[in-house]
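Retro notes (design track)

What went well: tokenization of the new backbones is finally stable.
What didn't: we kept losing track of which sequence belonged to which structure.
Fix going forward: every design gets posted as structure first, then sequence, in one message. First example under the new rule, 967 residues:
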């Protein structure tokens, strides 16, 4: 495959055979060339560094050496035999020969044995041209195979369905095509074990094994009766990528053939921000493979990024603009000029009638930094107001507030590589194996190496106990008591004298710490006093606190189970207190790390999407900040903060907010209290939805502007570790325009007079106006691959670790974190607590993943309920149940499981048929209005199917999605 990798020169794409090592330099001689490499490096890798390729089959640089194929044998002066170069480390003065008559004969004999038990269908094989077995046969000069079937009988093999006699071959196993994305063909397996090792070492699932011995050895998906789909396999693709033959092969390659070019880009799913090679035939995407030099994923992937990209060409995708006068009318397809003119005239008319603050925007955390920047600029520079918000409002806005108050910056402190140096990890309110699986694989690898894990979560998530991983402590707290639990951990650390006093005196405000220490030392915050409230056993909590305070490098990773509470901001500050208390800030292996839910939720916040902040988290009330943008944009900036999403909806119901431009966000499905969201949208006179599909919000839209996928545009995403990664256009936009161009057309139709011709120009403007991005441009990103902000004159190559020599705000600030119970209470009518989350195969509201084969793993939302709660309600596994709260009701099927505690139920929100957010309330975080998704008082009762509300909703949605036939 021809490989046009961008950036092309700076990164070596070769497979070096074994992983890179760190150590003192060692010099040796290979084939007459002096080579210097770090101690611990294998001879194979040392040779590759010198440009000498040693034949190999069982070795690849993503897993540890195994030494089974013997194809990589070399000769070493002063040693007998021909050791495997993949498992032999370098030594000073070593003299190595990789090409001798003896080695050529040995390698040819090894290859002859492999080929004798392999089908010779190379011309029709899906791996033709991309097969290492084929390549190595050529490399060793194999031209014939001496092993022939004897005249009196057949030759035992694994690839022929029948023996020469016509009888069934007991060694042959048919191809396994159960997985929707790849096949497993045992007939082509050479039992190199690369797939098994990738599953163990890279992914950490241990779904594969080698069963049998000798000639009977074969790769197995667990139990003999299991196929790939029924096994523990999570379809990350690591085994497929490691396979040197067509044994494990993508179905897209089988169907479409070998790619001819590739482009490096960034995944558009979760906040990990994996780098991928989009492998193409012309402008058709054939497969996505993780890029080995991607600094966030280091060559790994998950089922979504690796395989779930088919939504880009799904039949549901809308490619033409559409308009309608009223939401009860069918859609009418029009050209871009007419759609933009219709939208602009409506918005201008609303401002003329109701005032300039009567309209606003919602930016997208799925679009690029450049696109988010333009949408908030549209509000401020063209609409003339600060009515801009983003989906971070309903996920990580408390992160911005809490970390800003304590550390001085609204982002995580570490890079993902930092987890390789941690000794104790707290995972609180996050489920990385489902929500951030590539990071989870790196975390599990560190845990297998001996790091300890503390899980704080109402559910028994996979990290509590799974293959070769078990948490040292699981604190199954009652939903809504995060603050009490984290404060109790701090109580133990302070009262037992386990805090890092030297760090606190040097790096933090000592007076504020003393006030905090007095507060946290109060006996009412002790584990024994809070046990009845939180449900966490006092002894277990004390043990966890001691483990974290005394276990070495301590890191904290948290997710929406922290932020989506009425005290979300308080919990973030409590976590920051805990990190400062133990001195776990400012070096590798420590830190406070929010696991962001969407691919660019960090970036959308950085770009000024909040109504009170301009790009770079600078408040609109500051005249010197407004002046920067006045000079850049040529307009005055309103000093008054605008409306948040909940305020927009409230104002719409009251008749004051009349128009909305919503880019790449489905607030009707994702935001809480669905009925209130619907009421707000229905009250508006102009709702513009800019998206890939007719989503739920589009039910109330008057204009639909078809969006472009991440494959169809240039730009950047910023992931959870502040890493700015390039997004590169690999095909032309199927809708005709990239999203930034559509926003520009709308701005210009309203008098914006913008003239961008490429997103690089937008990034230049971002850099000119935003201090933390001042050193960022596309040339730097091409050279470095990615950088982490702040990237400026002081940090020209970015900042992997924050707060190394001091906090951004100067001294770290301890803040008193008093627990305040949520107003959402259980009672006789609603005795259970509902909490929500995600599942591995689906993403957010499911608009993308539901339009891929991922539905085979999750075709509907289900309600997890503890066996005791199910039994008392007469509910069995798979039964329909009615889920009701003070806000509304829905129906879905029950899954009876002890993963949840008694009194707690759990569901996902990926499927609009369920509309789980009709249950959630409008309670929110005290500081940021982030909704309290994680605590809703509910009742569960048997049901015979969908509720009347669900049926009415489905009927209204079907009516809303009617499209008039094109004339």
């Amino acid at each position: 495959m021809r490989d046009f990798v961008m950036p092309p020169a700076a990164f070596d794409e070769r497979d070096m055979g074994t992983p890179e090592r760190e150590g003192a330099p060692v010099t040796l001689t290979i084939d007459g060339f002096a080579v210097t490499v770090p101690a611990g490096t294998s001879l194979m890798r040392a040779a590759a560094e010198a440009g000498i390729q040693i034949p190999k089959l069982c070795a690849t640089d993503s897993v540890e050496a195994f030494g089974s194929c013997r194809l990589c044998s070399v000769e070493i002066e002063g040693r007998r035999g021909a050791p495997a170069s993949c498992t032999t480390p370098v030594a000073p003065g070593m003299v190595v020969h990789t090409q001798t008559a003896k080695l050529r004969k040995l390698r040819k004999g090894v290859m002859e044995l492999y080929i004798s038990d392999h089908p010779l269908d190379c011309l029709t094989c899906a791996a033709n041209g991309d097969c290492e077995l084929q390549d190595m046969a050529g490399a060793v000069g194999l031209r014939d195979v001496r092993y022939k079937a004897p005249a009196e009988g057949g030759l035992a093999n694994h690839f022929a369905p029948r023996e020469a006699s016509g009888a069934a071959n007991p060694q042959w196993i048919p191809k396994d095509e159960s997985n929707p994305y790849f096949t497993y063909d045992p007939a082509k397996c050479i039992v190199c074990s690369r797939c098994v090792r990738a599953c163990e070492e890279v992914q950490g699932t241990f779904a594969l094994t080698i069963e049998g011995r000798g000639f009977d050895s074969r790769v197995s998906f667990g139990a003999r009766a299991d196929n790939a789909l029924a096994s523990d396999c999570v379809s990350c693709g690591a085994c497929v990528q490691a396979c040197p033959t067509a044994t494990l092969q993508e179905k897209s390659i089988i169907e479409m053939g070998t790619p001819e070019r590739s482009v490096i880009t960034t995944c558009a799913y979760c906040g990990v921000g994996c780098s991928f090679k989009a492998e193409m035939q012309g402008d058709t995407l054939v497969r996505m493979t993780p890029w080995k030099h991607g600094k966030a994923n280091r060559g790994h992937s998950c089922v979504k990024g690796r395989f779930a990209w088919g939504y880009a060409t799904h039949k549901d995708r809308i490619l033409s603009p559409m308009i309608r006068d009223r939401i009860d009318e069918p859609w009418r397809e029009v050209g871009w000029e007419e759609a933009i003119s219709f939208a602009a005239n409506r918005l201008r008319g609303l401002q003329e009638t109701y005032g300039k603050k009567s309209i606003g925007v919602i930016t997208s955390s799925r679009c690029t930094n450049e696109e988010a920047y333009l949408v908030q600029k549209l509000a401020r520079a063209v609409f003339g107001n600060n009515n801009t918000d983003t989906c971070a409002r309903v996920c990580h806005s408390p992160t911005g507030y809490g970390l800003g108050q304590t550390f001085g910056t609204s982002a995580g402190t570490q890079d993902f590589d930092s987890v390789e140096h941690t000794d104790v990890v707290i995972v609180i309110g996050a489920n990385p194996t489902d929500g951030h699986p590539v990071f989870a694989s790196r975390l599990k690898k560190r845990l297998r190496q001996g790091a300890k894990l503390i899980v704080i979560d109402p559910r028994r998530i996979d990290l509590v106990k799974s293959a070769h991983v078990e948490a040292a402590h699981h604190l199954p707290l009652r939903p809504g008591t995060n603050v009490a639990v984290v404060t109790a951990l701090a109580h133990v650390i302070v009262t037992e004298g386990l805090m890092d006093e030297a760090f606190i005196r040097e790096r933090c405000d000592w007076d504020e710490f003393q006030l905090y220490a007095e507060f946290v030392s109060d006996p009412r915050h002790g584990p024994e006093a809070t046990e009845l409230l939180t449900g966490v056993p006092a002894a277990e909590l004390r043990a966890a606190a001691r483990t974290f305070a005394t276990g070495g490098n301590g890191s904290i990773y948290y997710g929406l189970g922290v932020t989506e509470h009425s005290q979300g901001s308080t919990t973030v500050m409590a976590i920051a207190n805990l990190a400062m208390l133990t001195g776990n800030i400012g070096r590798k292996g420590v830190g406070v790390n929010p696991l962001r839910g969407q691919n660019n939720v960090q970036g959308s916040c950085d770009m000024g999407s909040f109504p009170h902040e301009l790009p770079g988290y600078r408040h609109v009330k500051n005249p010197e900040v407004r002046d920067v943008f006045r000079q850049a944009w040529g307009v005055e900036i309103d000093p008054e903060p605008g409306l948040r999403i909940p305020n927009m909806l409230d104002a719409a119901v009251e008749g004051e907010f009349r128009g909305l431009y919503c880019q790449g966000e489905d607030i009707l499905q994702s935001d809480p209290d669905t009925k209130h969201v619907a009421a707000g949208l229905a009250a508006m006179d102009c709702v513009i939805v800019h998206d890939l599909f007719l989503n739920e919000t589009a039910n109330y839209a008057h204009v639909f502007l078809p969006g472009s996928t991440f494959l169809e545009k240039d730009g950047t995403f910023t992931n959870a570790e502040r890493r700015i990664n390039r997004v590169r256009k690999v095909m032309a936009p199927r809708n005709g325009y990239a999203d930034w161009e559509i926003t520009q057309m709308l701005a210009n139709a309203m008098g914006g007079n913008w003239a961008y011709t490429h997103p690089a120009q937008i990034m230049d403007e971002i850099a000119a106006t935003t201090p933390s991005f001042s050193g960022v441009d596309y040339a730097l990103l091409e050279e470095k691959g990615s950088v982490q902000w702040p990237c400026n004159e002081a940090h020209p190559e970015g900042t992997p670790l924050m707060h190394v020599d001091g906090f951004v705000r100067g001294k770290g600030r301890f803040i008193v974190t008093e627990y305040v119970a949520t107003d959402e209470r259980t009672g006789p009518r609603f005795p259970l607590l509902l909490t929500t989350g995600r599942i591995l195969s689906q993403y957010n509201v499911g608009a993308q993943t539901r339009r891929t084969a991922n539905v085979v793993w999750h075709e509907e939302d289900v309600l997890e309920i503890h066996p005791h709660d199910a039994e008392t309600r007469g509910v069995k596994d798979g039964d329909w149940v009615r889920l009701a709260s003070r806000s509304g009701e829905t129906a879905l099927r029950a899954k009876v499981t002890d993963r949840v505690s008694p009194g707690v139920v759990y569901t996902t929100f990926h499927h609009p048929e369920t509309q789980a957010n009709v249950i959630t309330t409008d309670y929110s975080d005290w500081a940021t209005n982030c909704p309290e998704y994680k605590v809703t008082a509910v009742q569960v009762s048997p049901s015979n199917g969908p509720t009347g509300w669900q049926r009415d909703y489905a009927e209204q949605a079907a009516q809303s999605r009617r499209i008039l036939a094109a004339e």
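Added context from the reviewer: The radius of gyration is 29 Å.
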